[in-house]
Amino acid sequence: MENNAIVQPSEEARKIMVIGFGRRLAATIIDGIILFVATFLLTLVVGLIGIFANLYTSRVPIPVNALIAIFGLILSFLYYVVAWSKSGQTIAKSVLGIKVVGADGQPLSVGKAFLRYVGYIISAVLLSLGFLWIAFDKKRQGWHDKIASSYAIDDQADFYSGQKFEFVPADPSPGWLWLAIWFLIAMVAPSALLISLYIMGPVLSQIITDLLVGLR
Asked: Residue 153's closest CA among 46, 15, 49?
């Protein structure tokens, strides 16, 4: 007896490659440098504005170190949350061909971007273990990715309506060299940040003081 049944072709899920932590590490370092310079410049501008506003009416010293911390936090929040919710790319991620998307392949909502930023802080403060997690996770997600259900993928990846897809790692399990590099950064970065804040404060204070003396 002849079987006339029609066999439907199976729809295989398209594989979307999730970027490993080598490129993501480079992006993190570049973004950190950008934010450091931007914080320095903004704090200097705010300090100068404060001097001009209180030049002849107040002699209260400007808390430069506090300004650096406050404006650094505000800048980093806006930098990351706006970028992730708009295009999924910070400046560094754009340069390195990376974008952040949600589980649906679309840019994160503002709420999800905020959660990812909170997760970023959590991942960083615990000796960057949340970032190191990327190396071992099957879908290359850090803690911040887990919290926001986000993925870092190649910016050339396109998503089509109704298409099935799955996220898979773009790289094999990392070697010990990468782990050693990441661990070194995790240990050094917090100390470097504290030292830079300690150095930046007096430097900015001296610059502002010299300008003040010049104006008088």
From this structure: 15
